[in-house]
Write a structure and sequence with these properties.
The longest helix has 19 residues, at 308-326. Helix 11 (286-296) packs across helix 12. Helices cover 28% and strands 19% of the residues. Among the domains are: 5-50, 2-Layer Sandwich (Uridine Diphospho-n-acetylenolpyruvylglucosamine Reductase, domain 2), CATH 3.30.43; 226-326, Enolase-like, domain 1 (2-Layer Sandwich). It has 338 residues and is α+β, with helices and mostly antiparallel strands. A five-stranded antiparallel sheet has the order 4-5-8-6-7. The chain has helices at 12-21, 34-39, 75-79, 82-87, 89-96, 101-106, 109-114, 165-172, 189-192, 273-277, 286-296, 308-326; strands spanning 5-8, 25-28, 47-50, 59-61, 67-70, 175-180, 183-188, 211-217, 226-231, 242-251, 254-263. It binds iron/sulfur cluster (SF4). Iron/sulfur cluster (SF4) binds at residues 117, 119, 121-122, 129-131, 138-140, 148, 157-159, 200.
Length: 338
């Protein structure tokens, strides 16, 4: 772990001023990913700017009927917040599928969005990794790639985005509020995370001198027909091999609106508009959901150890949509898939 300076930011403007003044600095809030990255010699910030005391911990209703979630709301507080439980249970379910209670107590909502891939080679500083060291190569493509991506990959990187919460936020079409030296702006959730292309070192479209201030949920929470299913190698405290967030609006058996995103398969939560369009106006059943799954997985490519993810994702999409249609969401306290 490298030596570093520590400073605390007094307010959002001070945080922006401090990060803009020092390109080698990093913000730290809960630190649940960054401290690991520093211990593994992956990140070497010369300065940590502690933003944990900034006034970004409130959950407020917006004038449009949505919800504005401060970037520093701990994951646990968000999952158990009454408005999230009642109106956005998909978000609560996805958060509770991730990490451990202790980690969720520390991890912030904003930090969840910018956590980095858990690709084995990214954390192994002696192996080639274009994300850690651009131009060095990718050890995962011909290596142990069981946990790596099958969609949206590039010759430079086949990493996945590790968040559960982000898969739900993609389905709900959240907006990310950020602020930087040029002022405040919003980023649509679908544009927040990037595919690797030839710049895998950049996970998101957040600029290095910008700070996330809030996540905004639109009014529609799909609280009647939703499900978040996570498939992993053990029943808790493991990242998704494949996860699926599904949200439906039904009129009887007929689908009026459909949203699906898949996690654990790409560098960002994976949504395909054509797959959602095929569901509209149709009767909700497993054969229809299989058609949507096939569209979502068009172009999927395995790299050896992760070939199994293609079939697994197809089955998980069908199952999650079926649970959403029945109004029987996956329980995160009963993780076992029977
Ligand atoms: Fe690095 Fe990406 Fe290759 Fe993993 S998949 S070794 S993160 S370049």
């Amino acid at each position: 772990m490298n030596p570093f300076h520590y400073a605390r930011a007094n307010d959002v403007a001070d945080a922006i001023r401090q990060i803009a003044a020092d390109p080698a600095a990093k913000f730290i809030a809960g630190g649940t990913n960054l401290l690991d990255l520093m211990k593994y010699d992956v990140e070497h910030p010369a300065r940590l700017i502690d933003i944990s005391q900034l006034p970004l911990r409130s959950v407020e209703e917006t004038s449009s009927g949505g919800l504005r979630i401060g970037a520093l709301v701990p994951n646990s507080d968000l999952a158990y917040h009454p408005l999230i439980e009642q109106r956005y249970p998909l978000v609560a379910s996805a958060i509770l599928a991730g990490a451990s209670q202790q980690l969720r107590n520390m991890a912030s909502t904003g930090g969840n969005l910018v956590q980095r891939t858990r690709c084995f080679y990214f954390y192994d500083a002696v192996t080639p990794c274009n994300k850690r060291e651009p131009g060095s190569g990718c050890a995962a493509i011909n290596g142990v790639n069981r946990i790596n991506a099958i969609l949206g990959t590039s010759e430079a990187c086949i990493a996945t985005h590790p968040s559960d919460m982000c898969v739900a936020l993609a389905v709900l079409e959240a907006t990310v509020h950020v602020a930087g030296p040029a002022g405040a702006r919003t980023i649509a959730f679908s544009d927040f995370h990037r595919l690797p292309d030839n710049t895998p070192q950049r996970d998101t479209n957040l600029e290095p001198d910008e700070i996330i201030t809030a996540i905004e949920l639109p009014p529609k929470g799909f609280s009647a027909n939703y499900s978040y299913l996570k498939i992993r190698d053990r029943l808790s405290y493991a990242f998704a091999l494949v996860s699926v967030a599904a949200a439906l609006e039904l009129d009887g058996d007929t689908i009026k609106e459909a949203r699906v995103a898949v996690g654990g398969v790409a560098h960002k939560p994976w949504r395909v508009s054509a797959a959602e369009a095929v569901l509209l106006g149709q009767r909700a059943d497993a054969s229809l959901f299989a058609q949507a799954a096939d569209i979502m997985l068009r172009g999927a490519k395995g790299y050896g150890h992760n070939n199994f993810k293609i079939g697994l994702a197809r089955r998980a999409i069908v199952r999650t949509l079926s649970q959403a249609a029945r109004g029987t969401p996956q329980s995160q306290s009963v993780k076992k898939i029977r």
